[in-house]
Structures are given as C-alpha cells and as structure tokens.
Amino acid sequence: MCPGDWIISGPATGKYYAVKDTDFRKDFDPRIETIQRILRLIAEHDCHNTLFWRSDLKFYINCNDAFCWATSDAEPIESEADIDLLQKSMEEGGDDGPLLYCARRRGMRPQGAMYTYLEPEHWPLFDACGPKREVGFGNPAQHPGDQASSTPVLES
Questions:
Q1: What is the pLDDT of residues 127-137, one digit of tens each?
Q2: How far, in whole angstroms, is CA 153 from its chain's centroid?
Q3: Which of 22, 33, 42, 129 could cysteine-pair with 103, CB 3.0–4.6 Å?
C-alpha cells in the first residue's frame, strides 16, 4: 500500500476505515475541535441528558423550568470562554454543574423552587450568580434558605 491510500474494509472484515499520511480533519467542519471538546466534557461528567444541539451543530445546555416557572429554555455554548465556564462549573458544581453554567452565564439565580432539586452545598455557588429574586410571576417560590428565616413563630 502506498502512503495516502485508503484502507477499504467493511463490517464483515472487522476492520475500520482509515487514511494514511493524510490530514483528513481539513475536510471537516472547522469547529471540529471545539465540538469534540464540548462532547468530551459532557461525557467525562456523564451529563449527556443536559446537552441539546441543533442540526447546524450549535450546542446548548437544557435549563427548562430552572429560571422561570413552566418554560422551555436552553443556554447556548458559543465560544471557548463558554466551554471554559462550563468546565469550571461542572468541576465545582458536580451534578448541578450544567445548571450552574447557565446561572453564571446569565448572571441570574435559578427560581426559588429549583433550589429544592440542587445539592444544598451548591446553593452558595448559585447565590453568587446574581441578585436575590423577588417572588412573583415566573418565580412563585422563595429560596429555601429565605423560607426558614421568614417562618412565623407560633405563640402558645
């Protein structure tokens, strides 16, 4: 076989298609390394259910109902800086990392009701993302930490 020749095979041979002495990546989307980085990060943290993508290979983190009650929502991953932020959020926030990325990118806390689904040790990370939210349309519940301090004391 000469350099640059294709190794032609099929499923019956148990061999893979391969190319020798050719940089085949030049024929792919120029974003291939960025796409691979996103997919590798999602796989390493086993949070594939949070990733959404479109046919044009734009990627998003699903954050339905996290910031506003009863909404479909997603936060885009558009740049290397976003991937860095996603990686940092996943390292610091564990399973809550993808949502932490969304909160940090938006500069906004999740709605109060969402906190009951988050690990309590991660609450300060989310609280640091933005100002305290008022209860109202889209945020029908208080932050659980605020509820404890505002609970009326019954007199006997």
A1: 999 999 999 98
A2: 41
A3: 129
